[in-house]
Amino acid sequence: MLRPDGLEERPTMPTSILMPSLSPTMEEGVLTKWLVKEGDLIKQGIMLCSVETDKTTVDYESMDEGYLRKIVVPDGSQAKVNQLIAVLSDEKDEDITEYLKKALEKSAAVVSATPGPSTDSTGSPQAGSGTGVVAPTAAPAPIPSPVAAAVPQPVAAFGSAQPAESSRIKTSPLARKIAADSGVPLGSVQGSGPQGRIIRKDVEGYKPSAANAGSEATQALFGAAAVAQPTQDIPLSMMRKTIGKRLLESSQNTPVFFVTQKIEVDALAKLRSDLHRGPGYKVSVNDIVVKAVAFALRRHPAVNSSFYGDFIRQNGNIDVCVAVSLDGGLITPIVKDADRKSLMAISQEIKALVAKAKSGKLAPEEYVGGTFTVSNLGMYGVDQFTAIINPPQAAILAVGGIQSEVYLDATGTPRQRDVMKVTISADHRVVDGAQAAQFLSTLKSAMEHPVWLML
Amino acid sequence: MENTYDILVIGSGPGGYVAAIKGAQAGKKVALVEKTELGGICLNWGCIPTKALLKSAEVFNDFKHAAQYGIKTGDATVDFGKVMDRSREVAKQNSNGVQFLMKKHKVEVLKGQAKLLAKGLVEITTAEGAKQTVKATSIIIATGAAPRQFPQYPIDGETFITYRHTLALREQPKKMLIVGAGAIGVEFAYFFNSIGTEVHLVEMLPQLLPIEDEEISKGLLASFKKQGINCYLGYTVETKAQKSGVQVKLMDAQKQETALTVDKVLVAVGMVPNSKDLGLESAGVKTDERGFIKVNEFLETSVKGIYAIGDVSGKQLLAHKASAEAEVAVAHILGKAQHGLDYGQIPGCTYCQPQVASIGLTEKACKEKNIAVKIGRFPFSASGKARAIGHTEGQVKLIFGAKYGELLGAHILGSEATELLAELGLAMKLEATFEEVMHTVHAHPTLSEVVMEAAMDSHGLSPHL
């Protein structure tokens, strides 16, 4: 929905408030208590209600302004993410009957479009998460008539929201433990037990499928250009707000400095092709970067630190966060104890974490914490960039793409080689320039002699 | 050539008759060939009639210990003939039950000896010598196994006997040598000792029930000794038949000899598959060097469309394994089989008192496979229910993987062990870990609490130890 921007003349219109997605795993919540009542004038930033998610209870802050005209989901009722919970209007006594009817129909589609094995997308927390506004592009498709017939009185469907069955993965306790331990995303494992129940051998035999995103990206590039796009004001999702808050805080409060290092990657490229031709396993450049970063962090513990105001914590574990871009932002799942894992294990774990992140199935312990972050934009062909530290971590590594260059060797003969540039952003309260440079030097050595990482 | 069937099953034991019913339930035209009684050894000469005998022994033992429960009885005595009659009657009822089931599921029962003429072609010869040839798209061989013959034990059905002769005895032996301390030997040892026969049980290997966990077998040995059974483990045996009884020479590893004279020798060592005279060669069905029919995961033999299940195809010679294989084979015939049986999850039970029941790996097997384990134990003596009923012998021993806590093996010695094992089979099948077993609320007071406590003990969490 377009919001009044002063440039466009349009009649005032009511606004829907939807159940927000308050965590990546949230599919529904219990609206424990309304903190405002019908008729109240709602201002941006006012707490609307308390919502209990699968993890915690959170107060839901209004992103919109207007009069609270109708509470659709009463205290103590369950509602799915994006289900209509209330309606605001600009004018106190504006007629909202027609709007409410339409909004309820839309919402009914959200509610009914759940279980069933193939309707995974409805659980996606990214779609219009926590906006508090119905944006036409993000709203569910117009309800097909069978759904409408199945829910003749949409209102009756509320309050009796079904449990989020679609999120339940049938799995044996043993399979679950092995999956958790080895980072296999249960959501992508094909179960061989009764009714697709995942058992031990399914997890142990799991092979992540090759990424097939390339063609989609191309399509998006050309497809998008063909369609004229209206100017629109996009409300902040919970994720955007969090990103904004944390990174603003970081860049305002951290005395950061940057050090860039050029790394020759010919040996690394050979290792990758050897691994691919030999054992048939494809490791990405980023997998090797993460492994090498862990290797270097173990030797430069000062860089593997966190800043807590009145003390510095030099972390014993090396938990490397890997920035993953999502539709609505980014998230940094953690490869825990990366220094103690094999390249293969790291590679598989990153694949699993990325898959989970993209489907919104990361558990908090999989993205909260970490001692160092790697952000890689190399796949977009960038030369180099700087990243903002993810506090309380003391540093972050920005990884650029691989470029070919001509250089003069020791004899003065021009030769060609492949290089990549990495840039560390370090918090000067914790790390000094020399330490950052030493860390990068170790990292460079490890990546230029990747056989070290095999030990 | 008159009769054509979708599935022809040869042998009506717990493998064969279950296969016949499963096929019929799927709408197939099924015939079942049996040369003697329906139900096979299990129902007629094995599992069931022996359980009837053992119950008589238990009842007698209860009478012997009645005073301890505050019950006065006169002198209880054993009427051996009636004990045996009851066992036969129980077997007969069960066999009739199978007959009823065949009728109910419209399985045609063909009496006689079956012989494969070629793939899909079977000749059946009745006891009277009448022959008929039938055609079948799929054939399931479920002919079982028979006691192995040894030259040093000339089975004559009089002094040298097998389990089968034993089940038909009319007179109680006074002194008996039982050769072999597997399930059959151990059960008969318990039975005859309980009713007053002097029992000498000899085993070449160094433990009772050699396939069971060593610790459990030791516990059983202690109990058997207390009950007065003479056990000779790690002994070899020589026998010499004489006019009055058999002279027996038992020799231990150090060549120390024990001599005794017995009136019966029950030979309970080894089984051989009933794979001869079936015409396997003419159909091209291959056997291994011991005569067991070679099968794949789905019990299909070297010839497509011919299956072999139960004892005749080897692995564990157990009735429930045969029934489970029947399901797999029929599912495969119907094109519905996803995977075969997990032979690491077949329970084994011995019905002496205290009972022995187990599933999965023994502690020794885990060691040999280099699997790191956590073991939980709980004695029946610490169970309130066991105390109340006066059966405090034995223990539950559960073996879990150290890393993930999955159940690798369960071993129970004690009262109702064979019934208590079921939940552990389910746990194993569902890939439960010690946590699920431990957090399943078990009713109090029951013997099953011992299982829960053992799971707790594997991680030092039992409140009652």
Total number of domains of chain B: 3
Protein chain pair with the most extensive contact, residues per chain: A-B, 10 and 12 residues
Question: How is the main sheet of chain A built?
Answer: 6 strands, mixed
CATH class of the largest domain in chain A: Alpha Beta
Q: For the CA atoms, what is the radius of gyration of chain A? A: 25 Å
CATH level-two architecture of the largest domain in chain A: 2-Layer Sandwich
What is the number of helical segments of chain A per DSSP (H or I, 4+ residues)? 11
Task: Tell me about this structure.
The complex is a heterodimer of chains A (455) and B (465). Chain A has three domains: 15-166, RNA polymerase II/Efflux pump adaptor protein, barrel-sandwich hybrid domain (OB fold (Dihydrolipoamide Acetyltransferase, E2P), Beta Barrel), CATH 2.40.50; 173-204, E3-binding domain (Dihydrolipoamide Transferase, Irregular); 238-454, Chloramphenicol acetyltransferase-like domain (Chloramphenicol Acetyltransferase), CATH 3.30.559. In chain A, 28% of the residues lie in helices and 22% in strands. Chain A has eleven helices and 18 strands. Chain A has a six-stranded mixed sheet with strand order 9-18-17-16-12-15. In chain A, strands 1-8-6-3 form a four-stranded antiparallel sheet, with helices on one face. Chain A has a four-stranded antiparallel sheet with strand order 5-4-2-7, with no helix packed on it. Chain B contains 15 helices and 22 strands. In chain B, strands 1, 2, 3, 4, 5, 6 and 17 form a seven-stranded mixed sheet that branches. A five-stranded parallel sheet of chain B has the order 8-15-9-10-11. A five-stranded antiparallel sheet of chain B has the order 18-19-22-21-20, sandwiched between helices. Chain B is globular and about 65 Å long. Chain B starts with a strand and ends in an 8-residue tail after the last helix. The chains are: A alpha+beta (455), B alpha/beta (465).
